[in-house]
Amino acid sequence: MPIKPLCNRKTFCAKTKYNPDACLSCVNAVLSSSASAKAEVLMTGFNLKFDFAPTVKGANVCAVDVGTTTVTGVIFDAQGAQIAKTGFLNPQKKYGLDVIARIDACNNGGMPEVRGCLMREIDKFIAGRNVRHVLLSGNTTMEHIAAGVSPYSIGVAPYKPQFTEMQTLKFSDCLLSGEGTVTLSPNVSGFIGGDIVAGIVACGLEKTDKNILFLDMGTNGEIVLSKKGKLYGCSTAAGPAFEGGNIACGSHAHDKAICNAKIEGGRIVVDRPDGVSIAGGAVIDYTAALLDLNVIDETGAIDDCRDDIDIFEQNGEPAIRVNEKVYLSQRDLREIQLAKSAVKAGIMTLLAAAEMSASEVDEVLIAGGFGMALNPKSAERICIFPPEFKGKTRAVGNTSLTGAIMCVLNAGILKHSQEVADAVEYVELTNNEIFQNFYLNSITFE
Amino acid sequence: MSNVILDQISEAVQKGKARDTKELVQKAIAEKIGAKDILDKGLLAAMAIVGKKFKNNEVFVPEVLISARALNMGTAELKPYLAAQGVKPLGKAIICTVKGDLHDIGKNLVRMMLEGVGLEVQDLGVDVAPEKIVEAVKTSDAKVLCLSALLTTTMGAQKDTIDALAAAGVRDKIKIMVGGAPVTEEYAKQIGADAYTSDAASAATAAKLFF
User: In angstroms, rounded to a whole number, what is the distance separating the alpha carbons of residues A33 and A14?
Assistant: First the structure.
């Protein structure tokens, strides 16, 4: 039975750049003819059914994914029907695009405002809707800030957070109006947060009998490997390059940005020839195309002797003109190399920790908005993944929100999520010789 | 004839062409060029150029890493021949990040550049206590010790380490270099270090002078 979307698809999906057909935040609780109620969540490639046993009976409940970049939320009524949905850019972005910048802002007396600007928006969403429970899923830093707990310790070695376990707070302690509680999804470590745990639950990684690799390719580059249900996790701190950060003309995937590129008739063409900036997915597409056209060699160096490509000098180094406003410099390509090297090395280090080879991996799931924007072929071409992953990768969308939805619609799943968090074996990459060797060997495009 | 190949090896390392480096080294070996010449005039000559460019901000960390990778491929090929022909490294050095400090990227870069000037490096890792360093200095014939500290709060451990070495009577056995973001020439003098350098390439150049 097809899931009926409750948004008008134009506003929500347009804002967050999700593929409307794969948008996984549409949920309907389906009341079966028998006494027991079933809930159904449609997620790209998954069809998850579970009993409808909400955390608070007879009242409305809400699931929120607090991403560093985007916040999404859904509200369900007492029968489990979705009655409201929201998606907005995290207002904390004025304090910085990544968690370290936000931790800095909080360290310098900014906590009340950094926290306030986010919670006010969440409050606006639930106001007047009789919500009694909010399940908030975010990375460890986001959850600390939401709870009003200083995240300073996450920003300095050994990067230990003030808490990892699931927290339950009163609305009034979370700057939310009305009566109710907020539960924060359990975290694993300073850099593997509740959003990843929710993602593990959404993809059933702790129950699978397959070998699955799960990646959230944002700034923190979290990776989870499930070896037939045994969980390993790491955070590669890939940096913002994949989301357009540290790229001269880079930006998030907004409606004036170049979002993809490909080779057509021997030239590289982009989706928005008038684009004012270039998004991470398109940078990867472009890099793959440059490799295929031999404009850059396997070391990533731009061949500036080409006549067919517009290459000019920018700050003493070669840059490739994409359009009137956008270019990709040698430095930009190096940023991509460093970011993808971190991710690849993280993958290989986890495989080594699990004593597995890349060929044993059955599926590679890429979560998040970036995952939806990423072209798997481009990712394979620039060697973010080992060659054995070819054809095995797919996007799974907002697994943090899906997991949060499952937890709020089934109290047992919520309880279980703490067991999942506890079960993840955290593999530290800093000062890890295995990671460093892989990192050095993954930096080129070969 | 032999110069051409050695120049090609140097070129390949500078460009970070790992496969080419490996093949050219194999070719040079087949042409019976001495392993020491391949190392010094091919591989290490390249790293000297890369180091200079790095110091002058003409290339940055990614390019150094890419070249270091090519260098490693080359030296791996060459290793058995170096041993067979009795070619020894220029000398030995010990490197670590001091107690309380977990930063390793800078230390790793210095290690690569030290290897790039022909030194054999023992890397003790991070958060290394003075006692452990004393032990390493006692049991090694290394001539240079490099201490890295990246925070103002951990710099003090560099002093603690030098003091511990003095107390153990092995201070004169080894030359001590210090580095890291908060470290200065003045501080180095204050704590009795033998040298201070501000970047990995300079560190390698300075270390070489002690051999």
Answer: 37
* Mean of the per-residue pLDDT values of chain B: 93
Q: Which residues of A touch B104 (CB under 8 A)?
A: 430-431, 436
Q: Is A360 exposed, middle or buried (0-12, 13-18, 19+ CB in 10 A)?
A: middle
What confidence score (pLDDT) does residue B205 get?
Answer: 93
Backbone angles phi, psi at B157, to 5 degrees: -65, -20
Task: Give the residue among A312, A279, A257, A252 at the shortest CA–CA distance from A378.
Answer: A279
| Residues of chain B contacting A300 with CB distance shorter than 8 Å | 62, 66
* φ, ψ (nearest 5 deg) of residue B150: -105, -5
Please tell me which residue of chain A has the smallest CA distance to B17: A299
Q: What mean pLDDT value characterizes chain A? A: 87
The yes-or-no verdict on residue A117 having pLDDT over 70 is yes
Cβ of A299 and B72 within 8 Å?
no
**Residue B103, number of CB atoms within 10 A of its CB:** 21
Tracing tokens 């908060």 back to the chain, one arrives at B182
Residues A274, A360: Cα–Cα separation, whole Å: 44
Alpha helices in B31-150 (DSSP H): 35-37, 45-55, 61-84, 105-116, 130-139
Complex ipTM: 0.80
Record the pTM: 0.86
Helices (H), chain B: 2-15, 18-30, 35-37, 45-55, 61-84, 105-116, 130-139, 156-167, 185-190, 200-208
Interface residue of A299, A329, A434, A437 to substitute, partner B, most B CBs within 10 Å: A299
